[in-house]
Amino acid sequence: MNNLPIAVSMGSLGALRRGSDLTIFLVFGILALLLLAILGIVDFFVSGIDPLLGFLAVILLTVLFLVIQWAISPAIVRWAAKARQEVTPQTNPWLYRTVQELCQQAGVPMVRHLWVSDVEDPNAFVFGRTVGSAEMVVNRPLLEQLNQDEVRAVLAHEVGHLRHRDVTIMTWASAVPLLAYVIARGGFEVLRSSGRVRGKGAGQAIAVAIAVAILSYCVYLITQLLVLYLSRTRESYADAYSGAATKDPHLLASALTKITYGLSLARSDAEPSGLRAFFIGDPVKAREDYEELRQRMQEYDLNRDGQIDQYELQKALEAEKRSHWRRANELFATHPPTIDRILMLEEMEEEIRQSGGQPPANIYKFV
User: Fold this and answer.
1) CA angle, 94 then 170 then 345, to 5°
2) Is 158 a catalytic residue?
3) What is the pLDDT of residues 195-215, one digit of tens each?
């Protein structure tokens, strides 16, 4: 039997971190280029505009849009999540204490508000403007369908998002494609009403609208793909943190299986949720995801004993790396496929086992 080398997933996590940092740079770099291009387009078609004043106006409006989105998003998320029942040490001592201990372990402040929601999906998520003002929502089905160790692993995943500052990073990053889309829609609206535009500058206005709309929509598509990739990398980070924090990655792997199954049932006939990115698994693709998970696990369980052992894990990882079509199919997903997440967690489990039951000493460099 071949042995898996120690720290394989540590290297993978290092690559994820570098890819995530590069993606953040690209998202905001593309936004800056878009704003400069819009200013250049306007300056090209419309004479008499002070470039410096135009640049400052574009920057001011952009910052204003981003700040407003950042300021109001927690209230919108809280309303959409139906967060009504706040958890206190008296109402649910175990849940409150568990989250408190995990936050202390991660070196982040205790969430400002901890909520239990009666939404039917098994889910938990964190949100907020900053780590210090973050809130956590736990849906009741998660507490009912998972055992306490699995719930703790899921909560550790969410605390991992706080440790990695994802509540701030994703809030700002996701505003970029939204801004590009708003600009594109504005350009297309001008075009749609172009028949009513008259006067000396009508042709210039239409030309500006066409150029801005096409450019902004292209930027929207590109940055949306980048933000989705960023979301997938942050989910992998949080998975790895949960595995390290609980010292038992298999717990989160087990929880993810149950959650994906629960989402596949709860979301079978439901419309896509506006909170899609806040789920621990992608609710839109849950049924497809669970079916793929079931088939892959059967395929990789070579001896049909219901477990993926060291040899089977190695073969599974090799097979997944060769599946380029599946990688292309993930481009529009908010989360990595559950099978990929489970294999990474099982890889961590193997490394911990080979390290004598403890995570590798350098794992916190990555998670």
Assistant:
1) 55
2) yes
3) 555 555 566 767 777 888 888
Query: What SS3 class is residue 321?
Result: helix
Task: Determine the 3-state secondary structure of 117 from DSSP.
Answer: strand
Q: Which of 76, 74, 113 is closest to 91 using CA atoms?
A: 113
pTM listed for this prediction = 0.79
- Catalytic one of 135, 150, 158, 347: 158
Report the distance separating Cα 268 and Cα 317, nearest Å: 30
pLDDT band of 268, cuts 50, 70, 90: very low
Query: What is the token pair recorded at 310?
Result: 């060291």
Q: Are 146 and 245 in contact (CB under 8 A)?
A: no
Which H helix or E strand runs over 116? strand 113-117
DSSP element (H, E) containing 138: strand 135-139
What CA–CA distance (Å, rounded) separates 247 from 245? 6
Residue 6: pLDDT band with limits 50, 70, 90: very low
Q: What confidence tens digit (pLDDT) does each residue in 329-342 have?
A: 677 888 888 888 88
Give the dihedral of Cα atoms 68, 71, 77, 82; nearest 10 deg. -120
Q: Are 169 and 28 in contact (CB under 8 A)?
A: no
Confidence of residue 151 (pLDDT cuts 50, 70, 90): very high
Run of H or E residues at 139: strand 135-139
85-163: which CATH architecture? 2-Layer Sandwich (3.30)
- Contacts of residue 272, defined as CB under 8 A and 6 or more positions apart, other chains included, come to 283, 284
DSSP code, position 306: S
Would you say 238 and 158 are in contact if contact means Cβ atoms under 8 Å apart? yes
**Angle, CA of 309, 348 and 239, to the nearest 5°:** 120
Q: Which two tokens stand for residue 337?
A: 């496929």
Where in 240-288 does DSSP place strands (E)?
Answer: none
- In the sheet with 124-127, reading across from the earlier edge strand, the strands are 85-86, 113-117, 135-139, 124-127
3-state SS, residue 361: coil
The H or E element containing residue 257 is helix 249-266
* Domain boundaries, given as residue ranges, for the chain: 8-80+166-365, 85-163
CA distance 277 to 290: 18
